[in-house]
Amino acid sequence: MSGGVGNWEHLFAYVLPRAGGRTVLLLLCTGLLATFFGALTAWLVTTFEFPLRRVLSLALVLPLAIPAYLAAYAFGEFFDFTGPLQTAVRGLFGYHSIKDYWFPDIRSLGGAVLVLSSVLYPYIYLSARSAFSMQGRFAAEAARTMGASSWRIFWQVQLPMARPAIMIGLTLVLMETLNDIGAVEYLGVQTLTFTIYETWLNRGSLAGATQIAAVVLLIVGALILLERTARKRQRFSTQKTTMMAQRFLRKPLTGPRKWLATITCLIPVLTGFAIPVLVLGTYAAKRLDGFLSPKLLKALWHSLSVSGTAACLTLVMGFVLSYAARANASPVTRTAGRVASLGYGIPGTVLAIGVLIPLAGFDNQVDAFMRSTFGYSTGLMMSGTAFAIIYASTVRFMTMAEGSLDAGFQKLSPHMDMASRTLGRTKLQTLVSVLIPNMRPAALTASLLVFIESLKELSATILLRPFSFNTLATLVYEDASRSKVQDASVAAIIIIAAGLIPVALVSRSLEQRPSE
Helix %, strand %, coil % for the chain, to 5? Predict the structure, then answer.
């Protein structure tokens, strides 16, 4: 299959109407459900006082530790005919077979919406919670003195003011939904991203996959534009509200309403974190010997080496970009920072194509030269090794390192540089003896975030990995694809445990906010 005009006609006639329609519907429904739970729970924990509010305000971040593909595998087991939920239904009502009752199918578009929104809503929760906290008490009290109810204040005052921040979180949700491949494949939803994977590997058409990837890039471009616009509006909104923001006085809820608020905040924690951990944790507890299996240890080593290398590379490159922006702020350095942040928005399957084509071309050119000159074949030095995965992870997660380091530099006063220079130190001496020691916490956070995200990454890794090369993520994917979720549970628990580290950092920062 070549990349000719006929393929474009086939793409627009058959692929886009089906896969494209499902993708748009998945993005729309996931965005709406994630926004509902994210914005509503953020409003409840910042505006009201109710039982377990403080615990739930931190627990609502926990689903960030669960990759979508792991949640899909756990939900598939939990809602299956032999799973605990349907078993309880049959026991409660006396049913004996699936013909006796109706039960929603988790392997459907609706199931994918439930799974993705359950683990992605924290992006909206965190941004909305920050916005609601910054609004302070003046806006709400002014509306309350005019006789407005709490719900009316939320709908007409607080929500419109928080809309730019919510849009930023929503954009991240949509990008992650578009990037997902493991969950949608397992749940039987053929999106454009999965179609790229299927066209490339199952049909052997890299040209066809490239054409679909070009369409996905248009969607990504629209999402990035949406995110940039929301950030501009957020800066304007922040300037107006920061001066008025004071410690928010939460309104105590009484009667049934306080328990309704507790249950509302508890539901997303149960679906997004408790169910995956309980299902996979129960399976893993029955396979403790699996922690020492050679296959798992080999996959763990591959994950650690790839993730560690990617973390080191992004740390160095992100530090260079951030320091350049601090030392010499110019359009060039600002543009370089923006370009470096674009990789996160590109789905892993699309990025894999963008990485593979030039690397394979380079490998072929080198191999042809070595054959003709020395009679020696170099093989696929880059595209056929872990280098391709490391390169893709570095490109995709560069924005995390650069963003964390840039935030760290912004916390350091420019006067530190000036004071050091007046004492006779050069720029290099100032960097080594003054700035780098103070940047260690930011550098640790940046490298940790990239390490964990690279450890969980599946969509690009599954396409770029060499033959017989498994990471923890691809090992879980292979077992789940063969309906052996129980065998995948040990590696899945290791991934979740690693994912809890950045979640703990986020929870710690939330606890340190004075308005919380």
Answer: 80, 0, 20
Tell me which DSSP letter residue 383 carries.
Answer: T
Alpha-carbon Rg for the chain, nearest whole angstrom, is 25
Q: Which helix (H) or strand (E) holds 252?
A: strand 251-252
Looking at residue 345, the DSSP 8-state letter turns out to be: G
Strand partners, 49: 252
Take residue 292 and report the two structure tokens written for it.
């020492």
CB atoms within 10 A of CB 402: 25
Give the pair of three-digit tokens for residue 395: 């490109």
pTM score of the predicted model: 0.86
What pLDDT is stored for residue 201 in this prediction?
A: 76
Find how far residue 207's CA is from the centre of its chain.
28
Question: At 252, phi and psi to the nearest 5?
Answer: -65, 135
State the pLDDT confidence band at 229, using cuts at 50, 70 and 90: confident
What stretches of 255-412 show up as alpha helix (H) in DSSP?
256-269, 275-285, 294-327, 331-340, 348-374, 387-411
Distance from the first to the final alpha carbon of the chain: 57
Q: Where are the alpha helices (DSSP H) in 60-108?
A: 68-78, 84-93
CB-count burial class (<10 Å; 0-12, 13-18, 19+) for 88: exposed
Q: Between residues 124 and 165, which one has the greater pLDDT?
A: 124
The CA distance from 125 to 145, in Å, is 28
DSSP secondary structure code for residue 202 in this structure: I
**Residue 250: strand, helix, or coil:** coil
CB atoms inside a 10 Å sphere around CB 505: 14
For residue 254, CA distances in Å to 39, 149, 155, 251 come to: 22, 15, 21, 10
Element (H, E) at 49: strand 48-49
